[in-house]
Amino acid sequence: MTKAVQSQTADLLAAAEQSVLFTAKRPNVVMERGEGMQLWDTEGKSYLDFIGGWAVTSLGHSPAVLRDALMKQSGELVHASPGFYNKPMIEFSQLLTDISGFDKVFFANSGAEANESAVKLARKHGALHLGGAYEIITLTNSFHGRTLAMMSATGKAQWDTLFEPKVPGFIHVPINDFDACFAAISNKTCAIMLELVQGEGGVNAVDSAYLQAIRKACDVYGIMLIVDEIQTGLARTGKLFAFQHYDIQPDVLTLGKGIGGGYPLSAMLTTNKFDLFVQGDQGGTYNGAPLAMAVGLAVVQEILRLGLAEQAAAVGSYAINKLQELSRTYPISNIRGKGLLFAFDVPDGTAQPLVAQCMEDGLLINAPKPATIRFMPPLIATKSDIDEMIGLLQKAMTGIGLSAS
Ligand SMILES: Cc1ncc(COP(=O)(O)O)c(C=O)c1O
């Protein structure tokens, strides 16, 4: 590494401090380039990426299909107007309905925005069919996004008193406690909204019997079941959709992150039964715009062509086995997850130092909680990427003194 490169990074970091509004502590690196499973910073250091752009870069970094779709579509039509259909929008909505069992798609730009659309649709259903019911039951420890309404929907204790007053109408109940959920249902309830594997909450999956009981209760009381698959969606959990692990069909599904492969894009899918919006209820300048649609179509087609759901299942269970082997020598416990969304616990307070040491050693992982390490790599990850990750993890654990008791 030359002095010039070092000083370029220092200058960039100083400029960032001056001009980028603080919202998050970021390490002192500037990311510059990505390819496949690797990221490089401005000093030329490479990182094996097991954060995957926060469960986003499903095809890895800068995949050719995404670049080609952007090039082709930007040469034809970047943006017409939200008032017009465009060809990739129609093709992409047909593809998503074909693979999911839903009938209709509304496109948006972020996960939070797709979830907002789901909540609007639920309240519309409440207004039309449930005597004005508007309440939505969600889970404690859930995460649904950062708009004001999604902060209310999210069950994060640290947000309880942030940005008051909260958007009303959200009730939180603990995961896998059907009695608590049932007790929260009233004539004001229009929907239940769930992540099937809580991602930001530390990788906690719902139980099958619990989810099936919720589906039944929704059917009996005419309540809409919304499943937030912004993080689990499209192939990450080893099936195209996490709900396919549970033998249920939601009424509304939200997707984001991985369906754009890095391009901002999200979607809300529903059935003909809940095709309830009328002119003016929902929309947005960029929703369904050609560039995003062409990218999403290309990314999803590639996920299907490469069979990445099956690959995520196989590589994910290989990773779990390797972590179990590691747990014989290192203090890691509660290894859990589905496909390429997995986690383990470490002694309290050691997760963040471990993340920092891994980064120093060239591995990117995430600590959603002070005692939890989470992995959400690109779906192209192979068994040899897992072996490399395990080697780096082992080195970092030894480096911070986290070794066998
Ligand atoms: C389950 C879930 N829902 C919603 C969101 C919000 O998505 P976005 O940050 O794109 O608004 C996230 C983001 O991490 C998520 O994991």
From TrEMBL:
PANTHER family with a match to the protein in the record: ACETYLORNITHINE AMINOTRANSFERASE, MITOCHONDRIAL, AMINOTRANSFERASE CLASS III
CDD domains with a match to the protein in the record: OAT_like
Gene3D superfamilies per the UniProt record, alphabetical: Aspartate Aminotransferase, domain 1, Type I PLP-dependent aspartate aminotransferase-like (Major domain)
Keyword Transferase attributed: yes
Cofactor: pyridoxal 5'-phosphate
Keywords annotated in UniProt: Aminotransferase, Pyridoxal phosphate, Transferase
Source organism (scientific name): Paenibacillus radicis (ex Gao et al. 2016)
Keyword Cell wall biogenesis/degradation applies: no
Encoding gene (name): argD2
Domain of life of the organism encoding this protein: Bacteria
Descriptive protein name: Acetylornithine aminotransferase 2
UniProt similarity note: Belongs to the class-III pyridoxal-phosphate-dependent aminotransferase family.
GO molecular function ontology, one term from the record: pyridoxal phosphate binding
